[in-house]
Amino acid sequence: MRVLIEAIGFGIASGAVISLGAVGFTVQFGISNVLNITYGSLMTLAAYLGYLLLQAGLDVWLALALAAAAVGLASVAFNRALLAPLIRRGTGFVGVVIVTVAAAIVLQYCIVAVAGPDTVSYGQQAGSTVRGGGLVFTTSQLTIIGLTLALMLALHLLLTRTQLGRAMRATAANRTVARSCGIRTERIIDLTWLISGTLCGAAGVALAISTVSFDFTLGPTFLIYMIAAAVLGGIGQPYGAMIGGLVVGVVSQVAAAYTSPAYQDVWAFLILIVMLLVRPRGLLAAGTASARRLAG
Amino acid sequence: MRSLQFSHDARPPAPSGAFWSAGRARSRYLLLAGGVAATLALAACGSSSSGKSGTASASGGGTINIGVIGPMTGSSAEIGNLMSGACYAAAHEVNAAGGVLGRTVSCKLIDDTGDPADAVPNVTRALATTGNLDMAVGLETNTAATTIPLVNNAHIPMVTTNGLPSYDSTTDTYFWRMTASDEQNGAAFVAWAVRQGYKRVALIFQNNGDSQSNQPGAVAAMGHSGGTMTANLTIPGDASSYSSVVARVIAGKPQALIFAADPQTSATFLSEYRQLNGGKVPPVITATESLTPAFFSTVQKVMGTAYMTHDIALIGTYISPSTSAYSLYKQAIYGTPQIKDPATILGVGTISAIYDGINLMSLAMDEAHSTSGAVYNSDIAKIASGTPGSVVVDSYAAGLAALKAGKQIHYEGVGGAIHFNAHHNSPGNFSASGFAANGSPTFLGEIPGTEVQSLVS
After folding, report:
1. CB distance B264–A216 less than 8 Å?
2. What tens digit of pLDDT does each residue of B267-312 get?
3. How far is it, in rounded angstroms, from Cα B59 to Cα A98?
4. pTM exceeding 0.90
5. Is A174's CB within 8 Å of B244's CB?
6. Which CATH superfamily is domain B185-315+452-456 in?
7. Burial status of residue B454 (CB atoms within 10 A of its CB: 0-12, 13-18, 19 or more)
8. If both were cysteines, with which of A203, B170, B369, B402 could B407 make a disulfide (CB 3.0 to 4.6 Å apart)?
């Protein structure tokens, strides 16, 4: 039992990082309807920006905030400069996806050209170890968990309790109708990319803190987990993405505690498949009682 | 696929309760995205897989090209750098002695990117387009299974540093290996643990070809060592956390870790070990493949210099620093202009096999009076083993001089005596190296090959 509780704790810690990225991904896709594969490379960019800021002597959490903000702005620029014009000219959904794949590869190679292919390290940023109730966390893990929860709550309040949130939901539902109702959808889209890009940047730095060291493959490697979390949670459900991330993290760590760790990801993805067979639209699928409750 | 034809604005309205439209079309898109992301992630693993290959120096005319087949780009590029360094040093020495049959030799870098998918077209192209490609070196573990058959079929003798145990019993005519297979190397890890008096040892290997191929030998050797294997785990590379695995290992109370993983995985695993074990991490025994600046700098940042210099032993092919062959090798490494990091190249024993291999193949060409692989291949074993009355030589220059004097020669290089078996393997002895505070290698001790064999037989 001790091993199980401990593994669940480890899973919550690693799942929180996945959740952070998954929430941003699902928000971006849900509102702008762009399936942005560049998201992974932008996480890598954030991790390297965080590294530069750490090298400059900044505190790791300040570095996280600044890198996240920078990637948020970069995301807005990316959408405005590349994706929005393509969409305006009639490029279809799949075409835009392919462009984001291409942009991801270009960005990744640019990062390698500037930063080199070698692994870089944030050094030991874990902080002290906190034990309680059979769970073991580091202070940095607790901070990331807290940050994820806080951002999740803020996002929930934004979407359900504010005029802006209603405008975002309306834009997501039907951009033409929203525009005809007076909503400035371009600004809404910009704001969406800013918020999701910031979450993407925060996830990139949080990942780098968690892995301690990383290279240019960081973001693309973990993007698949974040997409899995978004699918598992139910498309367009920030809470779902968060729960999905925690499920992926916990299943991986529990599997590593009891089976060969080499297959920890296999277990996580098997659970994902089984859950989708049972609930094809995800854990918090729209229309369910729980989703209605959470959606306000 | 019809759903893909919806434009954004044409989508059906969002179901009530959703923050935004979350139709089935999106589920499909996300699954598509999952596939794309997975592909991208895989591409990232072998990134820089541009198939770029470069020539070390201009080839043409009568120049004999040495194909250095290894990862020159991508995440394993450091291995290619080591291989090419050893080739440059050997070519420098051979050319300084007058070349082979009066012709200069040149290193031709053939980038296998560390990925079999890139290796096959890149090596095939190089074999087809490179004139006078008469010997090959490198052919490392990740791509050996795909590149060795290509080179063997081209009748080009090769000295490989790959560690695949399957080549312990190869019948490939042009294959030659003067380094231990990974299985024997894994057993050498245990031999070192036994020598240090560790009775309780945990085995942790990353699930990549390089690391995991050491595992069977280490497990077999643990069975013969009289010690206790507290854990035998395979871990995925570059995970965000290994906490559960670390907790399992700690529970076994090991005195030492036999651990093989890439720098990023090592840093994450060892830092979590320290975090979960009250700041204490047992000594690590690993492979000389980790004797690189990248491994040192990455792990040192989380473990500190004291741990790096006192608690890490790196096991690999033995080279004796006291021989004249080593002195000549060192001189060549430091005297070759193309080599930027001589200390690193000097510290990786396995790499000296490339230097020895080029000397050996060059002397075989001289002996056979031919650069044709089909002709000089059999002379490689002859010069390595020697014949009664042959003169022992430890450099290309000495060997060439002896041959010109009409003598039979027996080459003993940096790795010592070479005893090829029927499968063209000569595993030799092993060494344990450590890190100095600046990351350069230090010599910790020698492990006789017989001691290792006793643990696996």
Report:
1. no
2. 999 999 999 999 999 999 999 888 888 899 999 999 999 999 999 9
3. 41
4. no
5. no
6. Response regulator (3.40.50.2300)
7. middle
8. B402
